[in-house]
Amino acid sequence: MADTLIKKGQSLYYFQKESGLELDFLIRYKGECVPVEVKAKSAQAKSVATVRKHPEKYGVKHFIKFGDYNVGREGDLLTLPTYMQFLLDLEPEEIVLEEIDLEDLTKLAKEMKK
């Protein structure tokens, strides 16, 4: 999946909370944040289920899950076989945020530590 996203001009984004919730990839599709989960087998995506239960908290309306599945849709969740990754219709990512000066960020972090 990472290779597919890179070839389509996307940056790689991952989300993880201390609680253990994690999303494999986040993409921007038609102006919205869409989590993309990749499973080696037809396992349950527990983190996706958690985020789906709280759309107001996470601001996510649609999900894509790749794995050992047939094509299907369950409400806001689209499931696709792994081999269909290349069919994602993604535009090259536009830079939305200005670049961050890492030296300034490091200085700020050191000051906050004191």
For this entry, give a set of tags.
single chain, 114 residues, alpha/beta, Trna Endonuclease, Chain: A, domain 1, 5-stranded mixed β-sheet, two-stranded antiparallel sheet, 4 helices, 7 strands, 26% helix, 25% strand, globular
CATH class: Alpha Beta
The proportion of strand residues reads 25-35%
Output the number of helix runs: 4
Q: What count of structural domains?
A: 1
The CATH topology turns out to be Trna Endonuclease, Chain: A, domain 1
Q: How do the strands line up in the largest sheet?
A: 3-4-5-7-6
In a few lines, what is going on in this structure?
The termini are far apart. Strands 3-4-5-7-6 form a five-stranded mixed sheet, with no helix packed on it. With 114 residues, it is an alpha/beta fold.
Would you kindly provide a written description of the structure presented here, covering whatever features stand out?
The chain is of the alpha/beta class. The chain has one domain (2-113): Trna Endonuclease, Chain: A, domain 1 (3-Layer(aba) Sandwich). The chain has four helices and seven strands, in the order αββββααβββα. The protein has helices at 2-7, 46-53, 55-58, 102-113; strands at residues 15-16, 22-23, 25-29, 32-38, 63-67, 72-74, 77-81. β3 and β4 form a beta hairpin. It is globular, with a radius of gyration of 16 Å.
